[in-house]
Amino acid sequence: MSNSPADLLPPGDDAFVVAISSRALFDLEASHALFEREGLEAYEAFQRANEDSVLGPGIAFPLVHKLLQMNRDARPGVPRVEVILLSRNSSDTGLRIFNSIEHHGLGIIRAAFTNGAPPFPYIRPFGASLFLSAHSEDVLQAINAGVAAATILPSKASSRHPDQLRIAFDGDAVLFGHESERISQDEGLEAFARNERERAADPLSAGPFHGVLHALHRIQAAYPADQSPLRTALVTARSAPAHKRVILTLRHWGVRLDEALFLGGRDKGPFLQAFGADIFFDDSHTNVESARQHVATGHVPWRG
């Protein structure tokens, strides 16, 4: 996987492009249950019969709304944000989705409808550096192809900061590589702490969301710190002395994180609620179960 987020963008285009599935964007759970219960023909007939019935927001809808709002409020020179739709619907059944996009005033103009086929091959041609989906198999295929991706889980969405987008990340196996985490899993916390002390000056390797952080930093860098429409946080189980390597790695990368929470193994959910995260990304099933009780959460199935 490249260390540069620019590798995922079209030449000459510095946009931050997010690909999202229709089930993450809109509430299609009843339709999906119909598909699983009665099959494809019943699903298609239902969507055609209801194509003028507006779909309600899904888990990732507030995130997408805030992402696109940044374009409307952006100052000159700020990298734009684009959201594209990747859907396993056909173009015929997808008409209801585009009607709903228009109704909600979302600036989404590009889409791929794959009629049941995996949509991940289209992520790179669209220039997307992040893929969010409710379909875990599609997410796994995308992340194995080197694209930052997360499965959007049923979650409680935050509404604490309506005028600012807030994104939180786990550290190891999300922003950073998994090497240190594996030492902790295989050899225990003492070995992990010793490794981090001895290698504090060595930058951590890049994880799957390294490019996403850089893309967000480009947006943040266009604003004074106290006027940015975007705020980021690292929420990690690490604690001192393992914090030092993280701080020096971020300094080496030249990126900005507004907040860093070193929790020493405490449940992340309440801290994410206090931060007001619009989305949180973590690779640990335990952590995402805690987080999704408080904020919208994406599971990152990456092991390198």
Write the layout of secondary structure elements.
Blueprint lengths: L15 E6 H4 L3 H10 L1 H10 L11 H13 L7 E7 L7 H10 L6 E3 L16 E4 L2 H9 L3 E5 L12 E5 L9 H9 L1 H10 L11 H11 L9 E7 L6 H11 L5 E4 L6 H7 L3 E4 L2 H7 L5 E3 L5
Parallel strand pairs: 1-2, 1-4, 2-3, 4-5, 6-7, 6-9, 7-8, 9-10
Antiparallel strand pairs: 5-10
Helix pairs in contact: 2-3, 7-8, 11-12
Overview of the structural elements:
The chain has 304 residues and is of the alpha/beta class. The protein folds into two domains: 5-151, Rossmann fold; 165-299, HAD superfamily/HAD-like (Rossmann fold, 3-Layer(aba) Sandwich). Helices cover 37% and strands 16% of the residues. The chain contains twelve helices and ten strands. The protein has helices at 22-25, 29-38, 40-49, 61-73, 95-104, 136-144, 179-187, 189-198, 210-220, 243-253, 269-275, 285-291; strands spanning 16-21, 81-87, 111-113, 130-133, 148-152, 165-169, 230-236, 259-262, 279-282, 297-299. It has a ten-stranded mixed sheet, with helices on both faces. Strand 7 (230-236), helix 10 (243-253) and strand 8 (259-262) form a beta-alpha-beta unit. Helix 11 crosses helix 12. It is globular, with a radius of gyration of 19 Å. The model is unreliable at 1-12 (pLDDT under 50).
